[in-house]
Design brief:
Oligomer: single chain
Strand content: under 5%
Order of helices and strands: HEHHEEHHHHHH
Radius of gyration: 18 Å
Structural class: mainly alpha
GO molecular function, one term: DNA-binding transcription factor activity
Protein name: GntR family transcriptional regulator
CATH superfamily of the largest domain: GntR ligand-binding domain-like
Shape: globular
Number of helices: 9
Keywords: DNA-binding, Transcription, Transcription regulation
InterPro entries: GntR_C, TF_FadR/GntR_C, Tscrpt_reg_HTH_GntR, WH-like_DNA-bd_sf, WH_DNA-bd_sf
Largest sheet: 3 strands, antiparallel
Pfam family, one: GntR
Strand order of the largest sheet: 1-3-2
Distance between the termini: 29 Å
CATH topology of the largest domain: Four Helix Bundle (Hemerythrin (Met), subunit A)
CATH class of the largest domain: Mainly Alpha
Length: 218
């Protein structure tokens, strides 16, 4: 198997950087659930030594991103876990948005607004790019919440979320609807309206759940 990325990372990457790069490729669906991760190929791809790759894979295994079954592979999500995953995601997103509304800066809001403008269907960006932008949007909201422990929970449920969405193709109408919800959430954050931000964040997860669950049942 040959990975498609043409980017070469600096040779002095430490284990944490390697872990971050592999995790990003999983979240961006460059590495999909069930795909094997071969150490020698990762070494060539990231231009690093064997030790940081092995250490990064062990960290990712502990975090639930990958598993070891006669070799490393990206961890999938059992569809029976869908309800629990979305319930957890809704609770974490809601509390994250509440804290973000309390603490967010105008500069952080402007950055979120810029991301929203890049996620319109009219931009004609590939879906994997839209996925990446959406991930960045929610990561920035989590960063604005400024809570290290909550950020760790947010990161973990984010992986489950994208693993579930791999087989789902969102229509342009659905993309418009979800981006409208992004705009509403941003307005609540700008206004420092904690109740509205919490409510809108929870509703946003439920909107996605309503799209994803029927697709997974096919």
């Amino acid at each position: 198997m040959e990975y498609t990325s043409q980017m070469k990372a600096p040779s002095n990457l430490i284990t944490g950087d390697v872990r971050t790069k592999i995790r990003s490729m999983i979240l961006d669906s460059e590495f999909r659930p069930g795909q094997r991760l071969i150490e020698d190929e990762l070494i060539r791809l990231l231009n690093v030594g064997r030790t940081p790759v092995r250490e990064a894979l062990l960290i990712l295994q502990g975090e639930g991103f990958i598993a070891r079954h006669r070799g490393w592979e990206v961890q999938g999500v059992d569809h029976l876990e869908v309800q629990a995953i979305f319930e957890s995601r809704a609770a974490i997103e809601a509390e994250t948005a509440r804290l973000a509304a309390r603490k967010i800066t105008p500069q952080a809001c402007d950055a979120l607004a810029a991301l929203i403008e890049q996620m319109t269907p009219e931009s004609h960006r590939p879906r994997r790019v839209l996925n990446r932008l959406n991930t960045e949007f929610h990561e920035r909201v989590a960063k604005a919440a400024d809570n290290v422990v909550l950020a760790q929970f947010h990161e973990r449920t984010q992986f489950h979320y994208w693993a579930l969405r791999v087989p789902v193709m969102f229509s342009d109408e659905q993309l418009v609807a979800t981006n409208h919800e992004h705009r509403e959430l941003l307005a609540a954050l700008r206004a420092h309206d904690e109740d509205a931000a919490e409510r809108l964040a929870r509703a946003h997860v439920e909107t996605t759940r309503a799209i994803v669950e029927p697709a997974l049942a096919r």
